Amino acid sequence: MGDAQQIADGILERASIAAGIFSQLNQEETDRIVEAVCRAALDARIKLARMAVEETGIGIWQHKVIKNTLAAELVFEDIRDQKTVGVIARDEQRGIVEIAQPLGPIVAVIPVTNPTATVIFKALIALKSQNPIIFSPHRGAPKCSTEAARICYEAALSADAPEDCIQWVPESSRELTHALMSDARTALVLATGGPSLVKAAYSSGTPAIGVGSGNVPVFIERSADIPFAVENILLSKTFDNGTVCASEQAIVVERAIADEARSAFEKQGAFFLDPDAVKKLEAVVIRPETGLMSPKIVGRSVAAVAELAGITVPDGTRCLMAPQQKIGADDPLSGEILAPILAWYECDDFDDALKHCIALNYRGGIGHTASIYSTDEEKISAFGRLMDAGRVVVNTPSSQGGVGGVFNQLHTSLTLGCGSGGKNITAENITARHLINVKKLCYRKPNERWLAIADDRLLDETLSADDIINAYRG
Question: Pick from 75, 107, 230, 285: CA 20 to 30 A from residue 32's CA?
């Protein structure tokens, strides 16, 4: 590939021209483009899902069809009526008019785990906010990500979008991605990927929206409907072989219900490993030199993971359960693993279980997502207060609950902010409104109470704080 900076210059020059044209469109014209892209993505949902699994070997193509559909239809419906162009709000009483302003060219880094759905999602929210977008696919999924971008781009052009409103790098490389991210013409980096990638985005000198790791603890509290809880947990954890960052990672139960919960998991296809098998599993899921999960197991089936670990599991096993005693860097299965594997912790009581969930939360999942199954509102509230998580899902599959729009009314998103705990700028589900600047047109509306007291009296040293506050409040 040619000089990375030279290639980046050409891409960003075209994107800058597209940005200038895009900003001249009205809301109706913009919305027509977004709908055209949604429809094209829906028509290509199966093709793109098959391409993703064939190219990466990760996940289940039928589940990726659902992801692609969610990224197109649910995201579109979520943003369809949002005002993102021109005047978006008026406050006559305060004399303030809010005006949307596009950010400019966006560089979007795409993960190997969701290489087509993430393209669809980011294309829709960028176009809705009139921002040209440049995709940098993961080096393990360039073909399917590029095809998704091409489909979105052609659909946008068919609805009179500006040329080059969607671009993609001709060949994935760290040098080109860094050149794009660090260029002064780039307005924002949307970084979805591993910790090193997100760190690079934040270090680029360009504003960035990234994500954090999702080491999601799941507390099955003793008042929960246990069979229902297990059904939902397995529905979520086995979805696309556990590749959603909001998927469950560890089950925490009170000893009073541990046997009942274990039996429910076994009845629904989970297999509990003995200590020797746990050790074998630990050896293959984590890379000892980095402490991070091995790419060899990400999004792989139970059968593939078991074969890699050299352990035998019954036919039809849906999820591997790994009983654990401790939480920490020396306990590999207490961290995030994007595969159908769940750590299992039995605790003395509610307080002990909470401590375990907090420890898991801080073991690489700060700010992301936590989950509880319970019918006790007081305990649900306590759990919600104590978890450092942008999303605390209640009696809900964590994968589908975290992305929103399926089992709750969160904004549907494939980029989940983790707040300051995860070193992100926001803990919200990222959507189109995060991709605009909001200007304030401020009319003269004098603060008469302030003007009445802002005089030489303030220079009087005998005037106390109470005097000033009482005078202002009238």
Answer: 107
CA atoms within 13 A on the CB side of 102: 28
Q: Looking at the annotation, which residues are catalytic?
A: 245
Q: What angle do CA 207, 211, 215 make, to 5 degrees?
A: 160
Element housing 323 (H / E): strand 319-323
Q: Which three-class secondary structure state does DSSP give residue 231?
A: helix
Task: Find all residues with CB under 8 Å of 460, minimum gap 6, and list them.
Answer: none
403 in Cβ contact with 70 (< 8 Å):
yes
CA distance linking residue 59 with residue 218, whole number of Å: 22
Contact yes or no for 346/260 (Cβ under 8 A): no
Token pair in block for residue 472? 């202002």
Alpha-carbon span 277 to 322, nearest angstrom = 9
| β-pairing verdict for 188-191 and 248-254 | unpaired
- pLDDT at residue 1 tops 50: no
Query: pLDDT for 309-368, tens place per residue?
Result: 999 999 999 999 999 999 998 899 999 999 999 999 999 999 999 999 999 999 988 999
The residue type found at 113 is T
Cα–Cα distance between 189 and 314 in angstroms, integer? 45
Chain-centre distance of CA 132, in angstroms? Answer: 21
Residue 401's SS3 state is: helix
Distance CA 371, CA 394 (A): 6
What's the CA gap between 112 and 107, in Å, rounded? 16
If you count them, how many residues does the chain have?
474
Please give the single-letter amino acid code of residue 84. T
Q: How far apart are the first and last CA of the chain?
A: 71
What is the DSSP track for 336-380?
---SSEEEEEEESSHHHHHHHHHHHHTTT-TEEEEEEE-S-HHHH
Q: Whole-angstrom Cα distance, residue 333 to residue 329? A: 9
CA distance 27 to 180: 29
Instruction: Kindly report, residue by residue over 256-270, the tens digit of the pLDDT.
Output: 999 999 999 999 999
- Cα torsion for 259, 260, 263, 269, to the nearest 10°? -130
CA–CA–CA angle 213, 215, 218 (5° rounding): 150
Q: Which residues contact 46 (CB under 8 A, 6 or more apart)?
A: 65
Contact indicator for 258, 321 with CB cutoff of 8 Å:
no
Helix axes 142-158, 27-43, angle to 10 degrees: 140
- Asked if residues 167 and 146 have their Cβ atoms less than 8 Å apart, the reply is no
Mention every residue, 6+ apart, whose C-beta is less than 8 A from residue 278. Answer: 322, 323, 324, 333
